[in-house]
Sequence to fold (215 residues):
Amino acid sequence: MNLERMLKEGAEELGIKLSTKNINNFIIYLEELKIWSKKINLTGLKKDEDIITNHFLDSLSILKYLKEDSTLLDIGTGAGFPGVPISIVCPGCFVTVLDSAQKKILFIRNIIRRLSLRNVKAITGRAEVEQNNLKRKSFDYVVTRAVSDFYNVMKLSSPYLNEDGRMIVMRGEKGELELEAMSKEIENLELSVDKIDVFNLPFNESKRVSIILKK
Ligand code: SAH
Fold:
């Protein structure tokens, strides 16, 4: 299957209709990712198909939880996942991506420029350190994917949620077990489980568990 079709059909499986512009943007993102990966560590994946499924489509899997005109903080975004794919398909989502690695943020700023994205801001820094340009208690959604263990991602995300905010913790196949082990910690952080979503990625059927927590 060609890459454009893979993006289109994979997104459809997630209930998302991609425009031709969206698809072209993902192809540019893919090319840039491969070029920059030769110099800096951005992804372990080499094959185009794997990048599309495990990075782009997995990132888009959280779109269904987001309301239009909302603010999203992606902590430990790496090469932009899931924040940048969300900003590509959701012009009404105002995305901030944060990573402690300056080189990764420079890569993302290059993507923002190349794709003329106006709804995403990239910040270098550690989530546990107070940043002037990153207000606490101000985001509708805080998301993490593959950043740290479950407890640590909850601790990092929690301070940034607004009153009615939702934390989206993207986990792999052990997600439900990890969550079960966290009941005390969830209570201590004054959070509660809003939703548990277990699903398979398009094409390779890898199991994913997304957990939504609220204050
Ligand atoms: N979310 C991306 C990247 C995962 S790798 C993806 O799913 O592909 C984890 C990233 O988190 C690394 O780029 C690392 O620099 C960043 N990171 C780890 N701890 C962090 C912290 N406390 N604050 C900000 N970034 C952090």
